Structures are given as structure tokens and as C-alpha cells.
Amino acid sequence: MSDARARAASGLDPKTWAGAFDCARCARKRLPAIEFSKKALLRMRERGDDAGTCKACVDAEAAIERARARESASAVDDDADATCAACGATKPASAFSKTQRRGAAPRCGECVDAAARDDAARGAAALAKSLESARVDAARVGATLGDHVRETNLEAEAVTGLRAKFVGARGRGRGRGRSANPNSMLGRGGRK
Questions:
Q1: 169 and 181 Cβ atoms separated by less than 8 Å
Q2: Per-residue confidence at 4, pLDDT binned at 50, 70, 90?
Q3: CA pair distance 149, 22, nearest whole angstrom
Q4: 3-state secondary structure the chain
Q5: pLDDT number for residue 186
Q6: What is the pLDDT of residue 190?
Q7: pLDDT in tens, 86-129
């Protein structure tokens, strides 16, 4: 089964989702959260806005900026070459970010971008594998409530890009010590 068919079968194909976010740059509408970086999602939630810049537009802008920097640096400083630790190629200083040039093992912008894409692909593949495992566990006859909750949490993470957090009491009883719920209807938690 191809990767695209596997994603579509498991519900992880973003083209089949109707999201709630819009890209302000390319004007695409109803995008899922997976199309945006976590930082962009946090900024949108802080602003209370549904429009941000999608990953595709950010990558395109970064490529344009790197090309501009490469052109300007080659016009100004042709003799400052550096060797990329990842690909081993000798490239002009404009191919490296300032922080990469200062590091002990500098990597060029292309290698950094490739590593970021690989990490994103591995993360998406791991999420798809976990979600498929959770679906199998939840579909079996003796499935517990925990199996269904795990499946639901992974589906929500795939759609929203946010990982579920466990919020609950620690220890025995309600309203004891620092772990008391500040929103308790009984008024025993929080400030006194």
C-alpha cells in the first residue's frame, strides 16, 4: 500500500479534512492544524484569530530569503567559504545561518531544511502508526475505555496538532493540599 493510500485509509490525509484555519499569504481556506507550525498555532490562539501563515508559505519565503542572502553575500564576500558537516560540500558563507557558522559543526541551509523535513515526516509516520495501533486496540471485542480514549486523543492530535494533557487529582481524595482543583464547585481548592 502506498504512503498516500495508507494515510488516506487511516484518516491522516490532510486533503480529506475540513479544518478551521486560513492562510493569510496564499489565501487557502479551511486548512487543518497540521498545515501550520505549532508556534503559528499558538500565536493564532493567543490572538483569537483563525488566519496565519501555513508551512508551505513559510518554506517558500525562507527559500526566497536564502536565495537573496546568497546573492548578496556572493556579491560582497566570495572568499569566505565553509564546509557543511552534513553533506561535506564547501559552500559560501551565505549558505549558512549566523548560528550555524559559529557552531563547531556547521550545516548549510539546505541540509538543515532537509533534516527538518525528515523529522516532520518521521513524526507524521510515528503518529500514523500509533493511531493505527490505537484503532486496532479500540476495535477489538474486549476494548476498554482507556483504549477508546487513546484513539480519540491521537485522532485529535492529528487534526489539531496539540497533544492531549492529563488533568486530574493527585493522591487520595478531593481538595487536599496543593493539587486541589482551583475550579472546584465545593470551594476547597485554590486560594484560601
A1: yes
A2: low
A3: 29
A4: CCHHHHHHHHCCCHHHCCCCEEECCCCCCCECHHHCCHHHHHHHHHHCCCEECCHHHHHHHHHHHHHHHHHHHHHHCCCCEEECCCCCCEEEHHHCCHHHHHCCCCCCHHHHHHHHHHHHHHHHHHHHHHHHHHHHHHHCCCCCHHHHHHHHHHHHHHHHCCCCCCCCCCCCCCCCHHHCCCCCCCCCCCCC
A5: 59
A6: 47
A7: 888 888 888 888 887 777 888 888 898 888 888 888 988 898 89
Q: What single letter denotes the amino acid at residue 96?
A: F
| Closest of 187, 134, 127 to residue 157, by C-alpha | 127
Rounded to 10 deg, the angle between the 55-76 and 109-139 helix axes is: 160
Question: What average pLDDT does the chain have?
Answer: 77
